[in-house]
């Protein structure tokens, strides 16, 4: 049983108290007594407002549910929907035109367009890898994935495949830094003479693309992104290369989000400490992890900065690591790590204070993460401007507590709830001097789309959501609003996750649409994906795209408010079965690892055997979808029960190789994970905003209590 101790009138888990006093506070100049005094006051002041905002969510949803139930399946026109949403206070008047005023923003956010990597911060091995993913090997990314159309054969190095990789890489150099007299593939030497790159195929068409050099490397720069040609004639690859090129390194994950939210499992103090401790290691620079792979073991640590000579002879220092954000949880959840007046603390309040406290370790002397002296917090799952203003107030109060100048804590706003999308201008206005991004979290957003109109009728199939009118309007509106509010040069306009981690050829072929749509960043699930997605930012000039898009007619609110119900469509029994099984398999495959093993982000095969990145947001979509079809009789309860049992056996088989895995199918009644998945569906319609957190937390806590 967790022990709580009373500090400044709040009950704090004893382990959390020790962690904060012995690990997080030392070095910040803040004394424990004043920290606890301020923390307690902040919680007392802000908890009532947090609760009020959650009650407002419920009231609005109840009003929408009542109205929708009374429509008997006849969807409101977008005009009627808009009028209704205004009437109940869901839609507010847009603000007068304004531009954001955020200052002290690092160039990785304000200027450089490139990939954004997300990683569960409680996994030190992955978190370090993500921080170090600023630079990635193009050759490895092409060789080791299906990017070139096929997978590498089993066994040792395949020289023919290696040649294809090298050719592809050299052709990319022709795009990024063309030579005046031929192709990079035909170059037999790269040399620096004076301040210029010299090859036997001429110099650079644009000499300014040479950013620098160091012993054994040429550094190019294009669209603010760097590319390093690694020269090493002794290297196994360089040895067989006419010009001695051993690799091409791409500046890849320009920013990375250390996630405390949807990709982690943190239901109590000990798990929250795991999350906070890794963030602390990243901010202090001393995080390490022992990695065993390929028959060897090594210690992974944070990469160092990289040093070059620039044309003119000056030293050029480039960051070796991605600029790090930390994603806090939203306003919904509470956590037993602390109690105030006997009630669990609102987790988002604690996250803000503790992650910002930890951020202090960087913004003093070190500035190894933010040279500009900012702490970057991503705030997810906010519904509308009042909730954004509340996050702003929380950050104000946190700054007061930690002695920080106003707006030191920056905010990345996830545009991932319908009330936020529909009021995006007002949301941005509410945090206009600290906002550093808006990002279309289309996965949560799809879950909220289903949940909000749950009672209207059955929704289209999950795959069809991607072409629904609301989704296009949502994506366009996000860019239009960001441009209108002056984001270019100050803040990111971001797009969502590539959720098929093994489908790199498809990503390479498709994800260019994000920079083309005017986004300065977009999410990737892995360092390899970051390296490959970086190519899109060489191919698309985001700044030019943003200038071109700035004058277009903004996305119509009517389209954003077009509800994706199926409108009388009858699916065949086969289509219903496939949809149900796909959702149920995804839910079970994700939930079983979440509950039993504490893994918050997993790759789970869908019914077509494509491994999908599953996190709480994708689980929200699947569970809400089944709940919606159940509510409207598209599927019967017995059919769902039967699918759960059948898919449990499938998921058990998929995990058969994992020695730590507890099968569900032999005794589903006794499997807490199975029961959690079942509850997510059968109790799905009643979950706040359709979120999965309350049921996931309850079931994991039950499992931990059971031992
Ligand atoms: C809707 C949303 O909120 S999306 C945001 C939440 N999602 C995420 O954060 C995605 C994070 N990604 C992941 O957790 C993983 O990539 C998964 C679960 C999707 C796939 O994982 P796996 O199949 O185990 O990855 P895979 O086996 O292919 O690769 C493992 C290697 O890649 C690395 N890796 C994989 N994902 C990441 C990542 N996001 N960051 C850093 N490194 C990563 C691992 O460190 C490991 O390398 P190592 O052995 O050198 O340590
Ligand atoms: O957080 C991202 C999302 O898509 O949801
Ligand atoms: Mg999300």
From TrEMBL:
One of its GO terms (cellular component) is cytosol. Pathway: Carbohydrate metabolism; glyoxylate cycle; (S)-malate from isocitrate: step 2/2. It catalyses: glyoxylate + acetyl-CoA + H2O = (S)-malate + CoA + H(+). Residues 17-66 form the Malate synthase N-terminal domain. Its main location: cytoplasm. Its EC number is 2.3.3.9. InterPro entries: Malate_synth_C_sf, Malate_synth_sf, Malate_synthase_TIM, Malate_synthG, MS_C, MS_N, MS_N_TIM-barrel_dom, MSG_insertion. Mg(2+) binds at residues 416, 444. Residues 575-656 form the Malate synthase C-terminal domain. Residues 324-553 form the Malate synthase TIM barrel domain. Acetyl-CoA binds at residues 118, 125-126, 263, 300, 525. Keywords: Acyltransferase, Cytoplasm, Glyoxylate bypass, Magnesium, Metal-binding, Oxidation, Transferase, Tricarboxylic acid cycle. It comes from the Bacteria. GO terms for molecular function: magnesium ion binding; malate synthase activity. Residues 157-222 form the Malate synthase G alpha-beta insertion domain. HAMAP family: Malate_synth_G. Belongs to the malate synthase family. GlcB subfamily. PANTHER family: MALATE SYNTHASE G. Involved in the glycolate utilization. Catalyzes the condensation and subsequent hydrolysis of acetyl-coenzyme A (acetyl-CoA) and glyoxylate to form malate and CoA. This is Malate synthase G. It comes from Sphingomonas parva. The gene is glcB.
């Amino acid at each position: 049983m967790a022990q709580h101790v009373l500090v400044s009138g709040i009950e704090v888990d004893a382990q959390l108290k020790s962690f904060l006093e012995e690990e997080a506070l030392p070095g910040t100049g803040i004394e424990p007594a004043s920290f606890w005094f301020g923390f307690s006051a902040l919680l007392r002041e802000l908890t009532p407002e947090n609760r009020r905002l959650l009650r407002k969510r419920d009231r609005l949803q109840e009003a929408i549910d009542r109205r929708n139930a009374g429509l008997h399946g006849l969807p409101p026109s977008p005009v009627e929907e808009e009028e209704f949403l205004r009437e109940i206070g869901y839609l507010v008047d847009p603000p007068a035109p304004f531009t954001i005023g955020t200052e002290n923003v690092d160039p990785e956010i304000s200027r450089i367009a490139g990939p954004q990597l997300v990683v569960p911060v409680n996994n030190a091995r992955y978190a370090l890898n993500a921080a170090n993913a600023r630079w990635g090997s193009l050759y490895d990314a092409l060789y080791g994935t299906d990017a070139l159309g096929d997978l590498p054969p089993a066994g040792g190095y395949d020289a023919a495949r290696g040649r294809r990789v090298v050719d592809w890489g050299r052709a990319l150099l022709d795009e990024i830094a063309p030579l005046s007299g031929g192709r990079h593939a035909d170059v037999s030497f790269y040399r620096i003479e004076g301040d210029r790159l010299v090859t036997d195929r001429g110099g650079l068409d644009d000499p300014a693309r040479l950013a620098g050099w160091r012993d054994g490397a040429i550094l190019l720069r294009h669209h603010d992104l760097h590319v390093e040609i690694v020269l090493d004639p002794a290297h196994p690859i360089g040895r067989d290369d006419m010009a001695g090129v051993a690799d091409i390194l791409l500046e890849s994950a320009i920013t990375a989000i250390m996630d405390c939210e949807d990709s982690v499992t943190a239901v109590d103090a000990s798990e929250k400490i795991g999350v906070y401790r890794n963030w602390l290691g990243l901010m202090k620079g001393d995080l390490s992890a022992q990695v065993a792979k390929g028959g060897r073991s090594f210690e992974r640590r944070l990469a160092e900065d990289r040093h070059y000579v620039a044309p003119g002879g000056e030293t050029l220092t480039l960051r070796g690591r991605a600029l790090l954000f930390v994603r806090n949880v939203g306003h919904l959840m509470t956590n037993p790590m602390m109690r105030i007046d006997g009630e669990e603390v609102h987790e988002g309040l604690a996250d803000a204070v503790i992650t910002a406290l930890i951020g202090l370790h960087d913004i003093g002397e070190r500035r190894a993460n933010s040279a500009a002296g900012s702490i970057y917090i991503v705030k997810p799952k906010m519904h509308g401007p009042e909730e954004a203003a509340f996050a702003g107030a929380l950050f104000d109060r946190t700054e007061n507590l930690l002695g920080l100048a106003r707006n030191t804590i920056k905010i990345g706003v996830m545009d991932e709830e319908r009330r936020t999308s529909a009021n995006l201008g007002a949301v941005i206005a509410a945090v206009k001097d600290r906002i550093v991004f808006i990002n279309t979290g289309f996965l949560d957003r799809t879950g909220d789309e289903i949940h909000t109109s749950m009672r209207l009728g059955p929704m289209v199939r999950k795959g069809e959501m991607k072409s629904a009118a609301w989704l296009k309007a949502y994506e366009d509106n996000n860019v239009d609003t960001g441009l209108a509010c002056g984001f270019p040069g100050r803040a990111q306009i971001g797009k969502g996750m590539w959720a098929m981690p093994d489908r790199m050829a498809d990503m390479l072929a498709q994800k260019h649409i994000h920079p083309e749509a005017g986004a300065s960043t977009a999410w990737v699930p892995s360092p390899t994906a970051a390296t490959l997605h970086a190519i899109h930012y060489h191919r698309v000039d985001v700044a030019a795209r943003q200038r071109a898009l700035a004058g277009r007619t903004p996305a119509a609110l009517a389209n954003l408010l077009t509800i994706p119900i199926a409108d009388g469509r009858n699916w065949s029994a086969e289509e219903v079965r496939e949809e149900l099984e796909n959702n149920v398999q995804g839910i079970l495959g994700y939930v079983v690892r979440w509950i039993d093993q504490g893994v918050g982000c997993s790759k789970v095969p869908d019914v077509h055997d494509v491994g999908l990145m599953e996190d709480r947001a994708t689980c929200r979509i699947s569970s809400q979808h089944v709940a919606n079809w159940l509510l409207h009789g598209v599927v019967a309860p017995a059919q769902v029960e039967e699918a759960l049992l059948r898919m449990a056996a499938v998921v058990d088989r998929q995990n058969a190789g994992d020695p730590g895995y507890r099968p569900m199918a032999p005794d589903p009644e006794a499997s807490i994970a199975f029961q959690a998945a079942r509850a997510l569906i059968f109790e799905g319609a009643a979950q706040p905003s359709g979120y999965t957190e309350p049921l996931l937390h309850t079931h994991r806590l039950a499992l931990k209590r059971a031992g």
